[in-house]
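Q: Given only this backbone (188 positions), what sequence would you predict?
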């Protein structure tokens, strides 16, 4: 299904980047309360109308700002066996959880839950795509023999990344090697 073309001027890549970077910087530096549409517009040098034209809600903007930063900081590895690619990504994600990216991720998920009673918007706009891409890498690892587990790739993803996020959420020390061994079915 093809969506109808948007009316009006097309989105400016420079303005889009400025808005996403300003929203992320405000969330990371001053928290969600400081990340109002007014504040983002001022920091990005655009009008509030520009933001509302491209993002229907503050929640959608905050999710996209997180997504923009996460994609830049945590690219999906393209080289190596499936297991090697997952190991690299898990190590990078584990480190990122201890940075402002982890704090912002928690804040954005909390905002989604507070506004709608669930994290469905975060799942739809970010996690579903990321989960599918990483489950694809896991499936490649199963096919190339580097991941001996016969579990469904999405179940392996959930056990591995869910475990990392759980440990971060409750302030437990990260144990990516142990999680990898359990989830992938081989030695870490």
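A: Predicted residues:
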């Amino acid at each position: 299904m093809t969506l109808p073309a948007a009316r009006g001027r097309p989105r400016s890549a420079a303005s889009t980047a400025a808005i996403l970077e300003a929203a992320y910087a405000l969330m990371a530096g001053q928290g969600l309360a400081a990340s109002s549409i007014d504040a983002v517009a001022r920091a990005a040098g655009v009008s509030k109308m520009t933001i509302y034209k491209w993002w229907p809600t503050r929640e959608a903007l905050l999710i996209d700002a997180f997504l923009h930063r996460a994609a830049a900081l945590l690219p999906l590895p393209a080289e190596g066996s499936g297991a090697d690619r997952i190991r690299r990504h898990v190590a990078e994600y584990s480190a990122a959880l201890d940075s402002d990216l982890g704090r912002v991720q928690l804040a954005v998920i909390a905002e989604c839950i507070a506004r709608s009673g669930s994290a469905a918007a975060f799942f739809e706009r970010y996690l579903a795509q990321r989960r599918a891409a990483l489950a694809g890498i896991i499936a490649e690892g199963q096919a190339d023999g580097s991941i001996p587990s016969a579990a469904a790739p999405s179940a392996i993803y959930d056990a591995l990344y869910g475990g990392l996020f759980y440990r971060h959420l409750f302030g437990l020390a990260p144990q990516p090697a142990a999680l990898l061994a359990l989830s992938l079915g081989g030695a870490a």
